[in-house]
Amino acid sequence: MMLSKGLKRKREEEEEEKEALAVDAWWLDPSHPAVAQAPPAVASSSLFDLSVLKLHHSLRQSEPDLRHLVLVVNTLRRIQASMVPTASLPPVPSVPAAPGMADNLLASSDAALSASMASLLEDLSHIEGLSQAPQPLADEGPPGRPTGGAPPGLGALDLLGPATGCLLDDGLEGLFEDIDTSMYDSELWAPASEGLKPGPEDGPVKEQAPELDEAELDYLMDVLVGTQALERPPGPGR
Amino acid sequence: MAGAGGGGCPAGANDLQWCFSQVKGAIDEDVAEADIISTVEFNYSGDLLATGDKGGRVVIFQREQENKSRPHSRGEYNVYSTFQSHEPEFDYLKSLEIEEKINKIRWLPQQNAAQFLLSTNDKTIKLWKISERDKRAEGYNLKDEDGRLRDPFRITALRVPILKPMDLMVEASPRRIFANAHTYHINSISVNSDHETYLSADDLRINLWHLEITDRSFNIVDMKPANMEELTEVITAAEFHPHQCNVFVHSSSKGTTRLCDMRSSALCDTHSKFFEEPEDPSSRSFFSEIISSISDVKFSHSGRYMMTRDYLSVKVWDLNMESRPVETHQVHEYLRSKLCSLYENDCIFDKFECCWSGSDSAIMTGSYNNFFRMFDRNTRRDVTLEASRENSKPRASLKPRKVCTGAKRKRDEISVDSLDFSKKILHTAWHPAGNVIAVAATNNLYIFQDKVN
Questions:
Q1: Residue A47 and residue B420: Cβ atoms within 8 Å?
Q2: CB B15: neighbour CB atoms within 10 A?
Q3: CB contact under 8 A, B285 and A39
Q4: Is B195 left (phi over 0), alpha (psi -120 to 50) or beta?
Q5: CA of B260, closest CA in chain A: separation in Å?
Q6: What is the mean pLDDT of each run of 10 residues along chain B (453 residues)?
Q7: Which of A43, A61, A153, B310 has its CA 20 to 30 A from that of A36?
Q8: Going by DSSP bridges, is the β-strand pair B96-98/B296-299 parallel, antiparallel, or unpaired?
């Protein structure tokens, strides 16, 4: 969408653009009397929409350009702030309701926007956690924070080792989400015995096959709880 | 366009008359993406000029020596070596392709017969050795001239191999690969004045490396917030001080520059100096932050000043004064009223570089429409020149260009609305000692020399 010399755009596009820019860009025109002294007061909704579009486009990239993303987000926040002049916008998704016809749209899109921004920025941090090599031991004594040089392929395996601090439990959860363990869940344990009710109340054993002897179950519970305690606190599911 | 240009500044002792010297690259309008030049850098002596492109290739040009029999080729740059520095890679863990585009090249000072340079893409830095071979050994005992091994039982006498001259061959070989230390995209590398270490900077972190050690680097700046949702600022450029090996600067997307001293603390998250010019309230707009984002920072050769490039201007700072720059040069102020459309087409995010002349008396930076700007700090004069094939007759003087903002366009002026925003000059370089400049215009490299030269 570059403005290149001599490139003729379709008439409809041009008209749309002129309309969007000419009508709504008045505040940027330094010769406009209203602008001469005062900084811009309110952004148009088209500038807001454009920014939202840019943000979504940026976030949709497999690896977003962080600088572009941050600049668009900050600009969007400025625009938002000008459109809701009476409310002070916190950085979190909850935006206080403001009067005005565009504000329903604003509030809903803002919440959705903030949520998507938040989740996607969070994703970025997960991605980093997954691929970051483990830190070398502190007693090596060099200045600064040593960063590892291990190849990225080892990253996933390293997560199974001692916690490195940069990993969240969610990150581990996410790793295994798409692995189908149903095959292992049912085969491992004893074949069905009639009349046995599925008994376990506790978390880790919840998904085991129900056809288990109660004594066996207790034994397994002990084993599992024992090993689980070493790795991490029992959470819901796997 | 032969002859001295009319309508420009009158010639004076300080005025340089820039002339076209050479242009490298394909002529056709259809530009292959891989051929787009992404970095340009002279070496310390200026005899070598390296370019990197989006296809991951490095091309090195060498300046011809003075030759009485071919006076016109004096000072010409010709291809010396070409090699593939980086290949596209696939990060299987993140399911992402890593671009082979060369983001930066930095030369090492020459210490022996070979030349060394660092080249980097988004994730990996490589140290390349470029060496000449102009002799080869002949008369081996164990193998014959074709290279085939001789039957040892047939060898009845021993001889000493002798060195014979051969056609010059320039070889490039990767000596070190510095990988896996950057989660985000590398935007800068800078060789330290100690010639043993260098820094690499990505959007959020800066690492310090030793040239001999590839499996470890030290993180010296970390701007990553604990919660990524709080991210509001990224690192845009970083450079070591030319003389003080403990000092470096890094610039940000918020228009601030921090100078750090590695002696004061191993972790340089806090700065020694903070350079920021307060915003002019009368020119404030929704795009204020974007246009204040610094795209390049360069120390002067003297080490007394540094220069920052933001979207519309170049600022020169005295390292002893943090509150405001000592000079501000407008690059293309006529774009200020067009910021909305430039935001729409993403041009407002373009990252222009800047450079100092060898004596620090002048600075240069690029603009749109293949224009580039030069500012003489002594005479306070500036000029706009164009890198184009039309103005490329041998040794033809470049005519100053002018952009007209008002309704009345003078004869040789070009109106703002006619500027070609797809022709941007992002990368320029100035010879460290003489008046030779290299300007990258998309896939073409222009070399201009001063007439006096």
A1: no
A2: 16
A3: yes
A4: left
A5: 13
A6: 37 66 87 95 97 97 80 80 95 87 97 96 97 90 85 88 92 97 97 97 97 96 93 97 97 97 85 93 93 98 98 98 96 96 96 97 97 96 93 86 85 91 97 95 95 64
A7: B310
A8: unpaired
Contact assignment for B344 to A74 by CB distance below 8 Å: no
Q: One-letter amino acid identity for A40? A: P
CB contact under 8 A, B232 and A70: yes
User: Judging by beta carbons within 10 Å of its beta carbon (0-12, 13-18, 19+), is residue B2 exposed, middle or buried?
Assistant: exposed
Interface pTM, i.e. ipTM: 0.90
pLDDT above 50 for A36: no
- Nearest CA distance, B441 vs chain A (angstrom): 15
Name the closest residue on chain B to residue A151, using Cα atoms: B180
CB contact under 8 A, B183 and A82: no
| Angle, vertex CA B322, rays to CA B319 and CA B323, nearest 5 | 145
Six-digit token pair at B227?
């919660």
Query: How many CA atoms lie less than 13 Å away from A226 in the CB half-sphere?
Result: 6
Dist. CA B251–CA B235, nearest whole Å: 6
Contact B85, B55 (CB under 8 A): no
* pTM of the predicted model as reported, rounded to 2 decimal places: 0.72
Instruction: Give the H/E segment covering residue A17.
Output: helix A11-18
Candidates B434, B452, B448, B394; CA nearest to B77 is B448
The beta-carbon neighbor of B93 closest among A21, A40, A152 is A152
DSSP structural state of residue B168: E
Structure tokens at B88: 């596209």
Q: Is B156 exposed, middle or buried (0-12, 13-18, 19+ CB in 10 A)?
A: exposed
